[in-house]
Amino acid sequence: SQQGEEDPQALSIQEGENATMNCSYKTSINNLQWYRQNSGRGLVHLILIRSNEREKHSGRLRVTLDTSKKSSSLLITASRAADTASYFCATDEWGGNNRLAFGKGNQVVVIP
Amino acid sequence: GAVVSQHPSRVICKSGTSVKIECRSLDFQATTMFWYRQFPKQSLMLMATSNEGSKATYEQGVEKDKFLINHASLTLSTLTVTSAHPEDSSFYICSARDLGGLLEQYFGPGTRLTVT
Fold first, then answer.
1. In this predicted model, what pLDDT tens digit does every residue of A19-72 receive, in sequence order?
2. What percent of chain B has pLDDT over 70?
3. What pLDDT, on the 0 to 100 scale, is given for residue B100?
4. Secondary-structure breakdown of chain B: helix, strand, coil percentages, each rounded to the nearest 5
5. Which of B32, B37, B89, B105 to mutate to test binding with chain A, by most A CBs within 10 Å of its CB?
6. How far apart are CA A2 and CA A89, in angstroms?
7. Would you call B49 and A99 a contact, using CB atoms and an 8 Å cutoff?
8. Closest CA relative to residue A13, chosen from A98, A79, A112, A110
9. Do A103 and B45 touch (CB under 8 A)?
10. Pick from A2, A42, A50: which is nearest to B107 by CB?
11. Nearest residue of chain B to residue A98 (CA atoms)
12. Chain B residues close to A92, C-beta within 8 Å
């Protein structure tokens, strides 16, 4: 099932600005993961946040998770042209046998 | 980091033929691999969960006889699209979870299938 939903779906920013994407889901989860996909390529794992965590950082990435609101956000700080890609959130549902449910994705374009 | 490969990366076949796609975990063992399908500018749709040594578990709406999955070893799963039709044209992506690792799934680079 595709339960993750990102908002907004398309984002165009200038290099150096921050990019924020949101994701909402509907069921109980073990963890939530964010992935990046360049056009026509496979997915690159960015960050995983467990259900008992509220915030996590990795380099220029910051992810938050609010289980009470069933939502997550991905912040990319000081964006670069190379960050241009589609970003997906995916939820590892409780009792889902590690199956991931992907959201619709955010297309981010960073203008140099 | 963990690496998953797919072969071929791109294939064009005629309608009615069958195509096999391989997914390999190169530096780790995976009892479970997943097969996804992605249409242009859309998200990934899980097709099936491939379990080493047992039958695959298919998602609702996915035809088992059309998409044959074989997970023969801890490092290899194959997806065979049988009697392919133009509507089967898509981007197929596999992923694998490291048996001895954490919770992340590692994705292959994908296979672009075009059925003419």
1. 999 999 988 999 999 999 998 888 999 999 999 999 999 999 999 999 999 999
2. 95
3. 66
4. 5, 55, 45
5. B105
6. 10
7. yes
8. A110
9. no
10. A42
11. B103
12. 103
Closest CA to A96 of B70, B32, B5, B111: B32
Helix (H, G, I), strand (E, B) or coil at B19: strand
Q: Which residues contact B69 (CB under 8 A, 6 or more apart)?
A: B35, B48, B50, B56, B77, B78, B79, B80
C-alpha–C-alpha distance, residues A80 and A71, integer Å: 26
Beta-carbon separation of A102 and B43 below 8 A: yes
pLDDT in the model for residue A53: 97
DSSP character string of chain A: ----EEE-SEEEEETTS-EEEEEE--S-EEEEEEEEE-TTS-EEEEEEEETT-SEEEETTEEEEEETTTTEEEEEE-S--GGG-EEEEEEEEETTSTT-EEE---EEEEEE-
pLDDT of B65 reads 94
Residue B109 to residues A14, A100, A102, B59, B102, Cα–Cα distance (Å): 28, 17, 17, 22, 21
- Rounded CA gap, A105 and A8, in Å? 9
**A56–B contact, CB cutoff 8 A:** no
